[in-house]
UniProtKB/TrEMBL annotation:
<feature type="transmembrane region" description="Helical">
    <location>
        <begin position="138"/>
        <end position="157"/>
    </location>
</feature>
<feature type="transmembrane region" description="Helical">
    <location>
        <begin position="74"/>
        <end position="92"/>
    </location>
</feature>
<keyword id="KW-0812">Transmembrane</keyword>
<keyword id="KW-1003">Cell membrane</keyword>
<dbReference type="GO" id="GO:0016746">
    <property type="term" value="F:acyltransferase activity"/>
</dbReference>
<dbReference type="GO" id="GO:0005886">
    <property type="term" value="C:plasma membrane"/>
</dbReference>
<dbReference type="Pfam" id="PF07690">
    <property type="entry name" value="MFS_1"/>
</dbReference>
<dbReference type="InterPro" id="IPR011701">
    <property type="entry name" value="MFS"/>
</dbReference>
<feature type="transmembrane region" description="Helical">
    <location>
        <begin position="390"/>
        <end position="419"/>
    </location>
</feature>
<feature type="transmembrane region" description="Helical">
    <location>
        <begin position="295"/>
        <end position="316"/>
    </location>
</feature>
<dbReference type="InterPro" id="IPR002123">
    <property type="entry name" value="Plipid/glycerol_acylTrfase"/>
</dbReference>
<feature type="transmembrane region" description="Helical">
    <location>
        <begin position="7"/>
        <end position="27"/>
    </location>
</feature>
<feature type="transmembrane region" description="Helical">
    <location>
        <begin position="47"/>
        <end position="67"/>
    </location>
</feature>
<feature type="transmembrane region" description="Helical">
    <location>
        <begin position="268"/>
        <end position="288"/>
    </location>
</feature>
<keyword id="KW-0813">Transport</keyword>
<feature type="domain" description="Phospholipid/glycerol acyltransferase">
    <location>
        <begin position="443"/>
        <end position="553"/>
    </location>
</feature>
<dbReference type="GO" id="GO:0022857">
    <property type="term" value="F:transmembrane transporter activity"/>
</dbReference>
């Protein structure tokens, strides 16, 4: 992916955009932290976050229109140059000690980000294509969160170093730290220069015109919401991301007061340092998500991580140790990365290019509505003196709802990702010839059978679910039968196989993938046993027959190998699966066996 022209430049632009926006926000938040306590601190922190969110609500329709109408690289260029002028105003307000002006300019800085956002994320799909869409989202998430992590530490360390233990008013604080404003300006200037070098990747141009009257009276909003809800999976994922960001915003808004009142932590660097560890976790989680989405967008990760986020949020109010809090925030970040990357990638993947900007702007809009509402609720709770712990418990309940929502949407994918995590802890996999498996038509996969987990090894790189033919006696196991039915397995009996082959034929005609192990049983040695001819009774007319050979599993604990193999516990077993080119649907069992044997090492 990094060999694609413009990728490195684009990631640097993303980094600087997040680093600069975060820098001003951190300076304002740290000023609030130093001057105010209790409910006032929570309220002002919530207002700062709200000022960062409100532009994403107001600019939904215009930002989406611009991202669809004009080249996304130009939007990023002009948005970044506007940030130069905004940061100059912010710097001036620092030197004058105008706290309220600096506070209000948070809104203006967020306004350019709201216009920037849809173009920034839509550009991923245009720049790297569908092949690297998960890797691209993982890189963007990792870079963005790295910028946030570095920005929090960088600006908080400089802030604390300049303020020290001296007690100042908010106006005096701004005057003392005013030179930091020039760093914001410098970041914006470099960002603008790099953005001006990005290539134009616009493929489809829109002839639409923006009518201000329709925008003011909500016509665009109504139309765009209908467009977003057209595909239920896109809309569900946007709602899920909205809930996640709402939880995150509330946790960040209340943790400072919680640490100060419950744990007695008064150093802004310590508080911001603990929260910034979540950003470190997001970087790692995003890289993991990209790795697990190497072959397709692994949405099962999002359901698994939602459960993890809920458990972490629930555990924070019971933790008094700074070390354990740090661990919890790292875990929160890891689960966050695992949740965000596949959901964002799926939204981009399912969105048509001509409406991509509008859908991504809608994604920002709905997420922001969620975050804004949750922050207002937080403000009300704080105003009436509610304990921060209560808000942690409420967020855990929201996390539970999010977990159930994603569990229901991606139940099957969650099932597969759990097994994948288990196997990848002991195995490393390489797949050769995946391009031979058709994307949108029926296919019959046939190969050697060397272990109890062959079905899972073959399935891992294929997003479409494989319907395996399985021995009827195993299929009828009391405690597994319901799972086998849910997995659409086809029971096969040597005495009554006619119905099984008829069912397999029907599924192939309906575009499903069927897999058979013609040996009929797991091999007890490394040789490929005789193939049974049962598959010849399946109607294979017009169906691609794809042979495969699994190499490297034999000798593992999952095989029927009786001997002992000398292998370090800490060394992963390397497994390779070879998929051959589609072969004639008239091929006989012996010829098929020979072709499969020859696949090894191609």
């Amino acid at each position: 992916m990094f060999r694609v022209a413009g990728v490195v430049n684009y990631l640097l632009v993303i980094f600087l955009n997040a680093f600069t926006d975060l820098g001003h926000k951190i300076i304002v938040q740290n000023t609030v932290f130093k001057v105010y306590d209790g409910s006032t601190q929570i309220v002002l922190t919530a207002i700062v976050n709200s000022l960062m969110l409100l532009p994403f609500i107001l600019m939904f329709s215009p930002a989406g229109f611009l991202a669809d109408k004009f080249p996304k690289n130009l939007i990023m260029k002009y948005a970044s140059i506007s940030a130069v002028f905004i940061t100059l105003l912010i710097t001036y307000s620092y030197y004058q000690g105008w706290f309220l002006v600096a506070f209000a300019l948070t809104f203006l800085l967020a306004l350019q980000s709201a216009i920037y956002g849809p173009a920034k994320y839509g550009y991923i799909k245009e720049l790297v294509g569908l092949k690297f869409i998960s890797a691209g989202n993982g890189a963007v998430q990792a870079i963005t969160t790295s910028a946030i992590l570095i920005g929090i530490i960088f600006y908080t360390a400089l802030f604390e170093g300049m303020i020290g233990d001296v007690i100042y008013t908010k106006e005096e604080i701004l005057k003392v730290i005013a030179p930091l404003g020039w760093l914001l300006v410098l970041g914006s200037v470099i960002e603008w220069y790099l953005a001006s070098k990005l290539p134009n990747k616009m493929i489809e141009k829109s002839a639409r015109k923006f009518r201000f009257k329709r925008y003011v009276f909500g016509a665009y909003l109504k139309k765009n919401m209908i467009m977003i809800k057209r595909k239920k999976e896109i809309f569900d994922n946007i709602i899920a991301l909205g809930l996640f960001w709402s939880i995150s915003q509330v946790i960040l808004a209340i943790f400072g007061e919680y640490a100060k009142s419950e744990l007695g932590i008064t150093n802004a660097l310590v508080v911001q340092g603990i929260m910034s560890l979540a950003v470190f976790g997001i970087v790692f989680g995003s890289i993991l998500a990209a790795n697990f989405s190497k072959y397709y967008i692994n949405t099962g990760l999002s359901a698994l991580s939602a459960i993890g986020i809920t458990l972490v949020v629930l555990s924070i109010p019971f933790t008094t140790s700074v070390i354990f809090l740090a661990i919890e925030f790292i875990l929160f970040g890891i689960f966050s990365g695992l949740l965000m990357v596949p959901l964002n990638a799926k939204i981009q993947y399912l969105s048509p290019n001509v409406h991509l900007g509008t859908i991504l702007a809608g994604n920002n809009f709905i997420q922001t509505i969620f975050m804004f509402v949750f922050l207002m609720i937080t403000t009300l709770f704080a105003y009436f003196g509610a304990n921060a712990k209560i808000l942690f418990y409420i967020m855990a309940i929201v996390g539970l709802y999010l977990s159930v929502m994603l569990f229901r949407r991606y139940f099957v994918m969650l099932f597969w990702v759990i097994f994948e995590l288990m196997l990848k802890s002991r195995h490393s996999y390489k797949y050769v010839g995946l391009e031979n498996i058709p994307k949108d038509k029926g296919a019959l996969l046939m190969g050697n059978h060397v272990s109890w987990v062959d079905w899972l090894i073959v399935q891992l790189p294929i997003e479409r679910r494989i319907n395996y033919m399985i021995d009827k006696d195993i299929y009828n196991w009391k405690y597994c039968n319901a799972i086998f039915k849910k997995a659409d397995l086809i029971p096969l009996s040597s005495k009554a196989s006619k119905n099984s082959f008829f069912e397999a034929s029907n599924r192939l005609k309906n575009g499903r993938i069927i897999a058979i192990f013609p040996e009929g049983q797991i091999s007890r040695n490394s040789d490929v046993a005789k193939f049974y001819r049962g598959y010849e009774f399946i109607d294979r007319n017009g169906v691609d027959i794809v042979p495969f050979y699994i190499d490297g599993v034999f000798g593992s604990i999952f095989s029927r190998h009786n001997g002992k193999t000398k292998k370090s516990f800490f060394k992963k077993r390397e497994i390779t699966v070879y998929f051959g080119k589609p072969i004639s649907d008239e091929i006989k069992a012996d010829e098929l066996r020979n072709k499969i044997i020859k696949l090894k090492g191609i």
